[in-house]
Amino acid sequence: MEQEFDLVAAADKLIHDRRSIRKFLPKDVEDELLLKVLEAGRQAPSGEDAQPWRFIVIKDKSIIAELGVICGRASGRRFSGEYVTQRMQERFKDLTDPEKRKAVFQKLTSGAVSSFVGEAPVVLAVCGKKDVWDMPFDTSAAIENILLMVTALGLGACWVIAPCIDVRDELKVKELLNVPEEYKVVSLIPIGYFEKLPKPRPRLPLSQISFLDRFGEPYIKE
Amino acid sequence: MRSQVSQQYLYDIIYELQKAFWDERGMGGRYRLTTVGSDYLMRQVGHRLGPSWKENLKVALEALKSEGIIGSGSCVATAENVLKVGFKDCAHLGVDRRMTQDAGRVFACPCANFVMACIDRALGTTSELAEAKVLESCEPGSCEATILVFGASLPDTGEGGVVA
After folding, report:
1. Which residue of chain A is at minimal alpha-carbon distance from B120?
2. N or C: more exposed end of chain A, with fewer CB within 10 A?
3. Residue A64 CB contacts under 8 Å (≥ 6 apart), including other chains
4. Cα distances (Å, whole numbers) of residue A89 to A95, A204, B9, B18
5. pLDDT of B68-116, one tens digit each?
6. Residue A56 DSSP symbol
7. pLDDT confidence of residue A5
8. What ipTM was reported for this prediction?
């Protein structure tokens, strides 16, 4: 008998259930699941079908730990720079609870927002071939496919860009992972089982982000 | 015979390159420019760098001055890991003015990049250019870079700071 299911409902649930998971259980992820995750990435669209993505499955704990250090320093440095210039305080001006405000600043400036990568059971490094025109967009599509498959499999993941934003950090990651010159490291995706699903982050209403025919013309009239 | 390239043309090229990064990557584009400005100067003075961040800072400021990139430079520590580096009559000032209009702030600072590279060489850190701004409303021809040395506590730069 043919299985009946509602594809729209499934897609909708998958998209809405995805979260950025930063705390993992100390449990390895099975290779059969990782293969499904990689296959999801492989099926992403790419300009000219160039498929510029390459995925490194990192299981070596010492490499993962070193990635965590690079991630933590990269994030901590950037956010501390924002803090000392008061831009962070301005960005969070609506967060008035002193305790929460302190906790947010501490999390960001310490680098903890990204250093958790070092605790992940497995990390995928997504690399992109530099001589492909649409590489940043192609690899981003692959990453979103990966995140959705991770969600469908009951795993957790987080799209981490911190060690790839500043060219100085990216060079360290490239050296650590032995990535050839003709590729760049686009993102890291720590993956693992998790205990608790975080609450969904707020999203801007459609009325603020969608327009009709020209930018600024409301599509949804409230 | 090839004609001489005008200085204004070169300045405009630097501006246009920075603008291209801004248009493509937005504010994140500045992080793709954090090594720009270091390669040439490192070839000139890299051999003079040692284990003292303060000595390296002095070497960096002197190199920028002797190459004619800045008229003068100075640096003071304003917190245990924050340095304020002042530049006078920097060759990049025109670019910075235009990028401030386009991006709302100075987008990249090759001089600060080189200073950071020299400090980091001594400390094993990777510093952050927290902010760079043109200060012409205060003093004509002046700009200032705020550098955060992440993960290190710097001793005081002393009275008057480091000057070149």
Report:
1. A168
2. N
3. A58, A117, A118, A119, A120, A122, A123
4. 9, 21, 40, 28
5. 999 999 999 988 899 999 999 999 999 999 999 999 999 999 999 999 9
6. E
7. 73
8. 0.90
